[in-house]
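sorry for the late reply, my laptop died twice this morning and i had to redo everyting from scratch. anyway the thing you sent over, i finally got around to it. pasting the sequence first so we're on the same page, its 293 residues, then the predicted structure underneath. double check i copied it right bc i was rushing
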Amino acid sequence: GESGAQPVYRLANLSNGAYLYTLNPLERDYAVSLGNWRAEGVSFLAPKGSVLANRTWSTGALVQADAPKVYSSRVDATGSANVVFLKNIGSRTAVNAVRGAPNASGGLDWLNSVVIDQPASGNPFTPSFDHQLTTAASDNGNFAAAWLTSRACGSDTYRTSGQCEYLVVAVYSAATKAWSAPQVVSGSPTDFIRLKINDQGDVTIAVEGWVRSGSSTYNKQGIAIYRRPGISVGLGFNLSSVSEVITKFDLSLDATGNILLTGSATRNSTSDIVAYRGNVGSGLGAMELLESV
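ok and here's the structure:
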């Protein structure tokens, strides 16, 4: 064999078919002992000093003190990490983000956290409210965060008075290294489902929510939201109400902004698998029936 080469062991995940590669036989044996991994022997030989040879956990680092809860984090293809969380600032709570950049020693240099959303009045971020904060990252380091917040009802919500839920989005640009101002992109969401961002900054969201129909009635529908920098006004988002009551979404976004939204649509006594295709720049097309169940 190759002089100085090390065996790389492959393990298969019995649940989802994913593969784990490791140089460490102890890691291999421990994974097998968990009952969800199958050892598949030596996959290949890796030279000493390879990236895989240095794949180890770094020492834990304190990135933020006094944060009540970390909600979501992502790592992009550059090795940079973003963590979004809630933090108490005075008597109110804000959405914060902290970014870690790779350093020469293989760890991350964590920058100071920044506030990306703190309403001027009130305190919509409370432990009892499910904010469903989620994140997405592109390969080149663009980053998107979305969450639900509670604010006064308005003309676009299914209630006209009291407090209603809103979907809020903020975007981190790898080019400018800055967060956009948070934007309310939809009123009356019920469940946040999917969030995607690509290298050119296109953002797509799929959410289930209430859509106003007349002055006192409303319908529960799927909502697709999408944005392309430079085409939408400012950082504005376009919103498209899907005509069916769709649940169990799946959402895909490619590098050129093509969108595929699939889900389960319940109509009369049947449950159909349906799809919507389109592009961030032009919107979604008509519903396509894939299968009746």
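The chain has a mean pLDDT of 76.
thats about all i looked at so far, will dig more tmrw
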